[in-house]
Design brief:
Oligomer: single chain
Shape: globular
Strand content: 15-25%
Number of domains: 2
Helix content: 25-40%
Largest sheet: 10 strands, mixed
CATH architecture of the largest domain: 3-Layer(aba) Sandwich
Radius of gyration: 24 Å
CATH class of the largest domain: Alpha Beta
Distance between the termini: 88 Å
Structural class: alpha/beta
CATH topology of the largest domain: D-Maltodextrin-Binding Protein, domain 2
């Protein structure tokens, strides 16, 4: 009787190993066992995002190892297009500029990369004091608009947006972000235009003792601006990000996104996308903004999708957007 029990027990253990082995082998095989993903140098969010992304993708395949390589927003486009890395992270503006051979690309069109999925956005906001009398963007005419450091992202988009809207501030006030909140509080600036991740520390500090107001672009203004500057993206900043933000803020910004080689097999891409979207909670453990790896943010990627990714989003009814070519 004891011998029979031992035999049955051993058989059960063996069967368990066989079943677990079968499950272990059920993962799809990657196109090659070792792949690479480029992010950035140093402690940027690009490094953090790709570091969180790699184990999710590795775990979806049998025997896949992905190394994280240094890079940068534009450098990653060159690395993926040149076949030096299989994946990379970039921003909508740099992707558009590189794809069309503008700006930093200096006439070379880097088009051997395809968009896979959104990572996290940046958001353009314009904030003023609640009692400033500024109700909309046209009210910024003749006002002092704080835009951060000279030549920075906020300074650049401020001039592009105000030019598109036909609104001419009296002066663009350049200062560090550490000082900008105090400028608004002390009446040395009438409003602040800021494009980056949110919530921003200086705005959170400002709203402790001040009532703030966020200006809202109309849908027509957003659409027209994106037609003029297709390297930006439509984004929504969620209600509750700041105390004064009681509704979602429809605005423009940049969408950071993961791209890859056009040679990635279709079934590999589909499995990768399933894995990423099923594990956004793990991404968000590394940074709250990574929770924005969402289907609705696909529209923020301005360059062509991998064909399998395009079909994937079509089947899910996801809104997609390929930005118009630059005006001649």
């Amino acid at each position: 009787m004891k011998m029979s029990a031992k035999i049955l027990g051993a058989a059960a253990v063996a069967a368990g190993f066989m079943v677990s082995g079968a499950f272990a082998q059920s993962k799809p095989t990657p196109p090659k066992p070792v792949m690479s993903a480029s992010s950035q140098v140093g402690g940027s969010l690009y490094v953090t995002y790709v570091a969180a992304w790699i184990p999710i993708v590795q775990d979806a395949f049998d025997g896949l190892s992905i190394s994280q390589e240094p890079g940068g927003s534009s450098q990653n486009i060159m690395l993926v297009s040149g076949g030096q890395t299989d994946f990379g992270i970039t921003a909508s503006s740099q992707a558009y500029i590189g794809y069309h051979g503008l700006g930093w690309a200096n006439g070379t069109k880097y088009q051997d990369f395809v968009a896979l999925h959104p990572s996290f956005p940046t958001y353009m906001t314009v904030v003023t004091l609640a009692d400033s009398g500024i109700e909309n963007f046209s009210d910024l005419a003749g006002k002092e608009l704080a835009v951060g450091v000279p030549g920075g992202g906020s300074d650049t988009i401020a001039r592009e947006l105000m030019g598109y809207l036909g609104v001419e501030p009296d002066r663009y006030v350049n200062a560090s972000w550490e000082d900008t909140g105090g400028l608004l509080r002390d009446g040395l600036a009438d409003a602040i235009l800021y494009i980056a991740g949110h919530p921003a520390g200086f705005m959170q500090e400002l709203e402790v003792n001040q009532q703030l107001k966020f200006l809202q672009l109309s849908n027509d203004q957003i659409d027209g601006f994106l037609e003029e500057y297709p390297y930006y993206a439509p984004v929504d900043l969620k209600a509750g990000t700041y105390k004064a933000m009681t509704e979602d803020l429809n605005t423009v910004g940049q969408m950071n996104f993961m791209m890859g080689s056009p040679d990635l097999p279709d079934d590999f891409v589909v499995t990768l996308l399933d894995a990423v979207y099923a594990n956004t909670d793990k991404l968000a453990q590394s940074h709250p903004n990574f929770s924005q790896t969402r289907l609705e943010n696909v529209r923020g990627m301005p360059t062509p999708l991998h064909p399998a990714a395009k079909r994937y989003y079509e089947e899910k009814g996801v809104e997609m957007r390929q930005a118009a070519s630059p005006k001649q």
